[in-house]
Amino acid sequence: MTNPRVVTVGIDGSETSAVALAWAAREASRRSAQLRVIHAYTIPVYGGDFGAVMAFPSVDLEEFQTSHQKIAADQLEPIRATYPNLTIETVVHSGPPITAIVDGAKDAEMVVVGTHGAGSLAALIIGSVARGVAHRAPCPAVLVPNMPLKATIERIVVGADGSPAAEAAMDWADNESRLWDAELTVAHACYYPYHAGHVTTGDGAALMEVDAMMLLSKAGHRIDADRGGRNEVRTILLPGAPATALVEASADSDLLVVGSRGRGGLKAALLGSTSNQAIHHARCPIA
Predict the structure, then answer these.
(1) pTM (2 decimals)?
(2) DSSP code of 148?
């Protein structure tokens, strides 16, 4: 018997996590996958004698757990009504949320969490859980801001820079676009940081743009080759720094996809600067 397909989502009872839950449920239904809902909570503690860590005397642990089970049940109620045929596994336990969500995604096709804000200054308060999951996830991670959820995904933008991580992101975005019959745009940013006065021979900006157009064309053909002309892939050369350009492109998109340099442990420190900035400022869900 084969293992079921799984989409994992972390919730915490907030309005933002409710949007992430709805996004994950819609994705699981589309993929004919099981939805695994993780709700982790921490017990209030204080330092006891001899360095011991103890729960506050006023905390009834059983009652505390029951209250968090109710939080999960309440958030799931509208999901069960909307997707009556969706198989849902609910995991509620005490412990660090990031660890619980990452562990619950080890066999998942994707993991979904909510973020506290998107765009402008609000993006600076992206939740620590969302940031931690993005760094440590063992599978593609989708961060969903608190914004109205559309019924379908119609437009997907994926960043391309020629790296293996970007190619993996393009493959994932290609599959997602087929799943939703969505328009797919492969975007590459061309940023020449020098003023003309600093160039002594040739036109560095023009040469860089030619290289960028060649990279973009190659990336587009790489995906297009397997599509048989169905839903032709669009390519777009964006001016400016990669992170800024992709964030601006996300304003008219339903999903922004970027590659990551590493997942888990020490490799999390190598999360690329472009992807790191994009998850803070994207104006739509970002994978």
Answers:
(1) 0.81
(2) P
